[in-house]
Automatic annotation (TrEMBL):
Organism, as annotated: Phenylobacterium ferrooxidans
InterPro entries, per database record: Amidohydro_3, Metal-dep_hydrolase_composite, Metal_Hydrolase, Metallo-dep_Hydrolases_sf
Highest taxon of the lineage: Bacteria
TM spans (from-to): none
Protein name: Amidohydrolase family protein
Stretch list, region Disordered: 559-578
Database matches in PANTHER family: COLLAPSIN RESPONSE MEDIATOR PROTEIN, HYDRANTOINASE/DIHYDROPYRIMIDINASE FAMILY MEMBER
Domain Amidohydrolase span(s) in chain numbering: 43-551
Length: 578
């Protein structure tokens, strides 16, 4: 008798095999058979009418703090994610000196918009070194598997103190010590190392993340330590400017050490075709023996603007600023007052810089997010607030104000900031079907007050497979493989990502026709009543981690089979050969 048998499902196995009807047997947390299974299971699930997929492997999250107190890691676990990789973009919480806890929290708060009060209350610091951080994570129950990377910002500050925090050049001694720490972390089980080289990533005090301007000798030194450790991915967020210079050291690092390098790639609103050059350079580097892969997103980096969000178009107006500190219910009462509305709309916004101008006055890039037919993340230019204002004769800020007042003051405006220069997803389709890219950048757990992209895995199926009407779609088989086998392989997790005998039994059972993403909502459920945008899903009939059902019809079962992943995982075939 098997532990669990899933019967009559439409299996989409993660290997791009055409979907087929089959049963799946699971024993001791592994898949033991796929096909017609005569033996009974101690538990059986009828998957008739459902698709059965591997669990999603999300390689770009920021749960580094949340993972220390929250066993569920929602919203990602609500969307079928069974493996999450943290420690991206050079920020994290180890290693750390005992007197630098607050500094690391402010770094994460500034870069990833995670409430500092929530991190301060939620994190119980039981570590100093990176291996100690892993030990702390390993001892906690959780619903999904987690893995992490060694963050450059924390390492630099640990070794160099204020010099590192201020991005001063590293000495040879500094580099040697940073390399030792990274090698130690990778040897202890980190899946890699991450850094940030973008001016979009600033600490709470406005300073660039430590490592932003790191010289080639520092980066190569760390890469060599990873090569000596025998595994690890070098991940980075970068402005890629100038691109040729970045690719020079990336190529050298990967060719010399054998370490894969991966970078985030989004379409710039300033240079709409710049991504093509970066993919060309990626191809050239790979032809020269470098393992370089671009991480791409399945929709824009889109801000969700509302009265409770970090930003909205009225935060720079004096009358609103006088109300901003009021409890939400009292604030909404004031905002409903016609006189208050008139005063706010009559006022100019305070100067807020170039990005602030877009966030508060970029009405040609603002859209209604929620429609009768659902959420629209690929809106047309003619549906913008600016276009609507021209059609109706209303002022654009008045339209926004009234939209935000919907749903008792919980209406939202959508502002695609990156990856939407041409008001369509055609470039994203081209990126996603390129051989040198991998699906990523959900930022699960981050940007709590303005973004909720942990729903990416679900969106891949609803929009890109089933619902897209403005251009080409992708096959179900392709989309499943993109966020299971392909993401797992990049980080050396060869024990998961496909449904085959011997593989880890992480699965989703999905009612494909009913699959849907619900509207974002602001919750105050982090420690210290910290806020975060959350987004639920419908249509996940069951999620299974290591053979254990963790969610049924969107509700947690209370089972905690998740674990800390230490280092790359061998494929069952490789293990059998040994």
């Amino acid at each position: 008798m098997h532990d669990l048998v899933i019967r009559n499902g439409r299996v989409v196995d993660g290997a791009e095999t055409p979907a087929f009807l089959a049963d799946i047997a699971i024993d001791n947390g592994k898949i033991t058979a796929v096909g017609k299974i005569p033996q009974a299971g101690r538990r059986e699930i009828d998957a008739g009418g459902l698709i059965v997929t591997p669990g999603w492997v999300d390689i770009h999250t920021h749960y580094d703090g949340q993972v220390t107190w929250d066993p569920y890691l929602a919203p990602s676990s609500w969307h079928g994610v069974t493996t999450a990789v943290m420690g991206n973009c050079g920020v994290g919480f180890a290693p750390v000196r005992p007197d630098r806890h607050a500094w690391l929290i402010e770094l994460m708060e500034g870069v990833e918009d995670i409430p500092g009060a929530a991190l301060s209350e939620g994190i119980k610091w039981t570590w100093e070194t990176f291996p100690q951080y892993l030990d702390s994570l390993e001892g906690q129950p959780r619903v999904i598997d987690v893995a992490t990377q060694v963050p450059h910002g924390a390492v630099r500050a640990y070794v160099m103190g204020e010099r590192g925090a201020r991005n001063e050049p590293a000495t040879a001694e500094d580099i040697a010590e940073m390399s030792r720490i990274v090698g130690e972390g990778v040897a202890a089980g980190a899946l890699g190392f991450s850094t940030s080289r973008t001016m979009l990533h600033l600490a709470k005090d406005g300073e660039p993340v430590p490592g932003t301007f790191a010289a080639e000798d520092e980066l190569l030194g760390i890469g060599r330590a990873m090569g000596q450790a025998g595994h690890g991915v070098f991940e980075m967020a970068s402005d890629m400017a100038p691109a040729e210079n970045e690719f020079n050291w990336m190529r050298s690092l990967s060719v010399e050490t054998g370490v894969p390098v991966t970078f985030g790639l989004l379409q710039s609103p300033v240079k709409a075709d710049g991504w093509r050059r970066l993919l060309q350079l990626t191809e050239e580097a790979r032809a020269q023996g470098a393992q370089i892969t671009a991480q791409i997103a399945c929709r824009p980096t889109g801000m969700v603007l509302g009265w409770q969000s970090t930003v909205h178009p009225f935060i720079g107006r004096d009358t609103y600023r006088q109300l901003a500190a009021l409890p939400f219910a009292e604030r909404i009462v004031q905002l409903r007052d016609p006189e208050v509305r008139a005063r706010i709309l009559a006022e100019p916004s305070r100067p807020m810089g170039a990005i602030g101008m877009i966030l508060t006055q970029g009405f040609d890039r603002m859209f209604r997010l929620e429609h009768a037919g659902g959420l629209d993340y690929e809106p047309r230019a003619e549906d913008s607030i600016a276009a609507l204002a021209k059609t109706t004769g209303q002022a654009p800020d008045a339209i926004v104000y009234d939209m935000l007042m919907e749903k008792d003051g919980q209406g939202y405006i959508y502002l695609p900031l990156l990856n939407y220069a041409e008001f369509n997803f055609d470039h994203i389709h081209e990126m996603m079907t390129h051989s040198n890219t991998v699906l990523s950048l959900s930022d699960g757990g981050a940007h709590c007050g303005v973004i909720c992209d942990a729903s990416f895995p679900t969106y891949m199926l609803t929009h890109w497979v089933r619902d897209r009407s403005r251009g080409a779609r992708l096959s179900l088989e392709k989309v499943v493989s993109m966020q299971t086998r392909d993401t797992a392989r990049l980080y050396g997790l060869h024990d998961r990502g496909t449904l085959a005998p011997g593989m880890k039994a992480d699965l989703n059972l999905i009612d494909f026709e009913k699959l849907a993403i619900l509207a974002p909502e602001m919750a105050f459920d982090l420690p210290a009543q910290g806020r975060r945008l959350i987004q639920r899903a419908q249509g996940y009939v069951a999620t299974i981690v290591e053979g254990v059902v963790t969610f049924e019809n969107g509700e947690a079962t209370g089972e905690m089979p998740g674990r800390l992943i230490r280092g790359p995982q061998a494929s069952p075939m490789a293990q059998a050969a040994e």
